[in-house]
Amino acid sequence: MMIQDDNPYRHKAILDPSGKYQLEWLVKWNEKRVIFNVTVATNGYVGFGLSRKGKMTGADLIVGGVGKDGKPYFTDRHAIGNQLPKLDPSQDWTLHEAWEKGAQTFLSFSRPFETCDGDHDLPITDDVMTIIWAYSENDDELQYHFQNRGGYNVYLLDPDLAPREMNNLRRNNGEEGSTRVFNVTGSITLNEEDFMYWCSYHKVPTRTKQHIIGVS
């Protein structure tokens, strides 16, 4: 499942300083699913995961690659401490494609925003998440202490990547849909001083917790 170049909602990132681990992701808003493509400079296994605080403990992980027999392998795992990631009873990540070419491994996989495996999977929300990445030089043995590993903070559901249809939710001054728009106005008389500080307070028209996704 390749991400097309003309898709306006794709995003790319290089996760490691040497450029050996490249990520591309696409938010499928109508399916409430995120597709991930990773290209890694290795012929060994590839690790990829989601974490709330950048730590292994509690992370939602996959390990995949292409074996010496040319067949792909792919597992949904979770980290519980200073030990090897454990297999999830419910395999909620989906592998779409896997291949090796030269010294590179390519994996395409996806996961819904929410799964029914709340004990082992993290929900994908509009909050910041840490992508945990790792890779090995071989396929033979999964190791806890990856030699090549790191973390990358990202907003996977960045509002800037939202489809154009979401603009329809902003009609009637934001009274319809899940995205609300309200105007803040005020006036001030400037004095003749070189510097002036102005502080004002405004009541937000809601009593529930909200996320501000844009100010203009």
TrEMBL record:
PROSITE patterns documented for this protein: DOMON
Name of this protein: DOMON domain-containing protein
Matches recorded under Gene3D superfamilies: Cellobiose dehydrogenase, cytochrome domain
Domain of life: Eukaryota
Domain named DOMON: residues: 19-136
